[in-house]
Automatic annotation (TrEMBL):
Keywords: Monooxygenase, Oxidoreductase. This is LLM class flavin-dependent oxidoreductase. It comes from the Bacteria. Gene3D superfamilies: Luciferase-like domain (3.20.20.30). Residues 22-315 form the Luciferase-like domain. The keyword Oxidoreductase applies. It comes from Bacillus lumedeiriae.
Length: 356
């Protein structure tokens, strides 16, 4: 009960997430090796914890241009050198993972971290995990629905009997270990579909919205649908948590932030678009339009980032904001400087302004 009261009164949680992309530096053309990239991610999490941030997330990909496929292993390593920061996947591709193994891995992480494990589940922008693990992309949504149903039942029962379509049935199966928390916090990552928002609401899990650009007001219907579906399903409004995720970079001035981040952000999207079969390079003019004061791209001075988060808070009343900053080959030194500014100059003001 005390923990719930603290959560209600501490304002918006502020944190970071990473997908571990392996982009060549746009200046040198060199790409850090996988071992160094993972080491830097762990160092970033340690810095975030020591600086007082609330959440650190690690994403999942199954391809050579990303460093992380096993989120629970990386988060377990982070758990050993951090003390209080919450540790979440960002996201778990739930359609192509066995829910029992996922539960066991994150229950173990929860025990190792003294109750700090969470999961953001999604269907993923890339589909390489489907053939890799023997699934059909035609079952994309059905797999997600079935696996979510099973995972939530695993959270509620130490012993379970269950029937599904895509995996073997369970008969009085013992699910071990049990997490330290009463149940592992689960969020659904939502990109922009109302049905995904409604599903998260009906299930009574958190909803993490990916807002990567444009005017954030266009995401307000997702939040409204989520809360209505949740309350219609009998869930308490206070339990229906909204999180905002987005790209960002912070420097002492907005000009410095845009000057430093543009080459890396343009590099990132050129690389990602090529992976997705799209062309085109982001111009400086396009980038500056994307970082304007009324947009959702969190690039600027600490004051500008504060204003953007608070504007979104007025729209959504969300409980959590987590930013992805280490993208496009951005050097770790710049990532670390941005983390410090987020923790020291942005987070305290946002928490104060959004606390009850």
């Amino acid at each position: 009960m005390r923990e719930e009261e603290e959560c209600k009164n501490s304002g918006v949680e502020i944190g970071l997430y990473t997908l571990g992309d392996l982009c060549p530096d746009p200046y040198s053309g060199k790409t850090v090796n996988v071992q160094q990239r993972i080491r830097e991610i762990i160092d970033a999490a340690k810095l975030a914890d020591e600086s007082g941030l609330d959440v650190f997330g690690v994403g999942e990909h199954h391809r050579l241009d990303y460093a992380i496929s096993s989120t629970s292993v990386v988060l377990a390593a982070i758990a050993q050198i951090t003390k209080r920061i919450k540790l979440t996947s960002a996201t778990t591709v739930l359609s192509t993972v066995d829910p029992v193994r996922l539960f066991e891995d994150f229950a173990t992480l929860d025990l190792l971290s003294n109750g700090r494990a969470e999961i953001i589940a999604g269907r993923g922008a890339f589909v390489e995990s489907f053939p890799l693990f023997g699934f059909d992309t035609n079952d994309y949504d059905a797999l997600f629905s079935e696996n979510m149903d099973l995972f939530l039942k695993l959270s509620e029962n130490e012993t379970i009997s269950w029937n599904g379509h895509f995996r073997s049935s369970l008969r009085n199966a013992e699910i071990a270990p049990r997490p330290l928390q009463n149940r592992l916090p689960m969020w659904i990552g939502v990109g922009g579909t109302l049905e995904s928002a409604a599903r998260a609401g009906r299930l009574g899990v958190g909803m993490a919205i990916a807002i990567l650009g444009g005017d954030p007001v266009r995401f307000k219907p997702l939040v409204d649908v989520y809360r209505k579906a949740g309350t219609d399903a009998g869930h308490e409004l206070e339990s229906l948590k909204v999180g905002v995720t987005g790209h960002g970079y912070i420097a002492k001035t907005t000009q410095q932030a845009t000057d430093e981040f543009y080459p890396y952000y343009s590099n990132y999207w050129t690389y990602v678009n090529r992976q997705l079969g799209r062309g085109g390079r982001m111009s400086r003019a396009d980038f500056e339009q994307m970082t304007g004061p009324d947009t959702a791209l969190f690039v600027g001075s600490p004051q500008q980032i504060i204003e953007k988060i608070l504007r979104q808070y007025e729209l959504f009343g969300h409980k959590r904001f987590i930013a992805q900053m280490d993208i496009g080959g951005l050097p770790f030194k710049k990532v670390a400087e941005a983390i410090e500014l987020l923790a020291v100059e942005v987070a305290p003001i946002v928490r104060k302004e959004t606390s009850r």
